[in-house]
Amino acid sequence: MPVPPSAALTQLAHSYGVATEFWDWRGNHVSVPVDTIVAVLAALDVDAGTDEAAERALAERALEPWRRQLPAVVVMREGWTPWVPVHLPEGHELTARIVLEDGEVRSLRQVEHWVEPRNIDGSMVAEATVELPGDLPLGYHRLEVSHEGGHAQTSVIVTPAALHLPDALERDSAWGLLTQLYSVRSDRSWGIGDAADLAELGTWAARQGADFVLINPIHAAEPVAPMEPSPYLPTSRRFVNPMYIRVEEVAELGYLSAAQHQLVEWHSDDARRLNALPHLDRDASWQSKQAALKMIFRTERTHRRRRDFESFCEREGQGLQDYATWCAMVLERGLPWRDWPAELQDPRSEAVAKERHRLAEEVEFQCWLQWIVQSQFIDAQRELLAAGMKLGVLHDLAVGVHPDGAETWALGDVLAKGVSVGAPPDDYNQLGQDWSQPPWRPDRLAELDYAPYRDMLRTALRMAGGLRVDHILGLFRLWWVPSGAQPLEGTYVRYDHEAMVGILALEAQRAGAVIIGEDLGTVEDWVRDYLAGRGIFGTSILWFERQDSDAPKPPETYRKLCLASVTTHDLPPTAGYLQGEHVTVRHELGLLTRSLEEELDQDSKQRDAVLDELHSRGLLRKGATVDDQVDALHKFMTWTPSKLLGVSVNDLAGDVRTINQPGTYEEYPNWRLPMAGPDRQPVTLDQLMVSRRAKRLIKGVTRRNPI
User: What's the superkingdom here (predicted)?
Assistant: First the structure.
């Protein structure tokens, strides 16, 4: 029997939001091993290695709020009137005011709330209480207090009670496409789908009646080969992968000399040969694009373009400078950055400042790439809205970042060390998952007023009509896996979900955007209700929506505030799923905990139950082909009350292959498969737009009734 944690360790863990027990996906109660609890606390700089150390840490934890004059940050909803504790020397008089975002100043009143003074580090400290008014506007404000002994301030963040739906969605529902952008290549692509391909796909879809295109995360990747193929393991979530630039649409291309134009054409021809490859080659594509973009970058810019670039750099501030400096240093020194000299591992060091100056041209080039790629995505969003879409582009936000990426260098102490984010075992990943990403530290986020989180959200929302938050459950709790441990040996760590979700809603409301939470997996009962109450969409995948038996849920019982779809990027396209591709692949890779026969039998029962439902509703006839079944499944989803319906572009093409197989790295070509047809041969965007299969499927989903 495992040794249970001591009372002090349990209390200490709970004070930091670290779970000492939980219920797994099968409903079993699980006690977290002591070693896991101790390792996770160590990642928060808490020594709990012995009972004595845990008791000391617990005593220190109790003193923390009394050693601060004000909380690190106050996050409230509009209309709330929270009380804020203020700690000051006993007997001192207090004055308090709040400075609003627009500069308006309001005095605050103290409330009668007696708390016994305490002896803190040899001095008597009292606790006063101020009340924040309920009519504070949405935004980022500053609470200031003064007394004889000094002055203190903290941020007050006022968030929406609930995110408002766009007017078009209040009255009606909408359908749109779901796609891995890099895989959707046109005849003009340089081996990889890009921002111009997105505009082409989106404006075509708009003419078919679509109102959005949800794409994979486009976060920044490494500036050197090999480029990480997973869009969910970026080097930075705040910045964008310049791989998605369409070279021909950079304005300065027109000012190149004839000889330079010829060189760009040469690089273009070389890159377009990549379109014929069975697997995507990001490194070769970027090598060609980078060479062409370097020439364009060195071309003289017009005054207005130069002013626009300078304004972009000024707005993005130190974060952009840090990211660009890291890229420049990586190009010269390589990865991992932890092998660099110690003085270069601190972005605020004098040595890094000297490197930034020495590598000034490359640093500027990296900033310029960000300006270009973000501008092209903003242009794509503008085109989709002009074509008639209600929402346009919906971007995707990954859970975390690469452990050796730009963000771990620039935001070092905001990310926990010695642990990584993952997921406990579930039905589709029965060994659990370790995503190798360092998690946010909840305490450091609060101390920084959530600034890194806010900056990240603003970049994505500036280019989009909405944002899908992958594993939105991570805004409530994340599964932390200690280094060297198996994924199932982790535990949950809680975050301030009121702050995380509230700030997300605030930034989205200011951008006029919708938020979709990917809330699949092991979910606490109350979380989905909480998200719906805050105006956040959920996610429903047909294959996961089952009743107690294998029978599918009736479509009429789906959630209204939801993005519903038949499949997702972690499952095969629908044609592949119907043929058992997900079971076959997992068996071949050794990812099953049950026998192949058991898995096939269980999968067959669930699949047949869905198809039987389609037959009973008159959506399928006997002897229907796989294509007929795909169409019927999508028609079935149009009967849900869900506000949003997603259709995979791979389903339009008839693809059967799994895009990503969780639990694998090199064992399967994750994120490296171009869009293909039923024969597994690549299909271009140009071919898709004239495909009868695509038009037939689209015709079925456009017959949705207003809600």
Answer: Bacteria
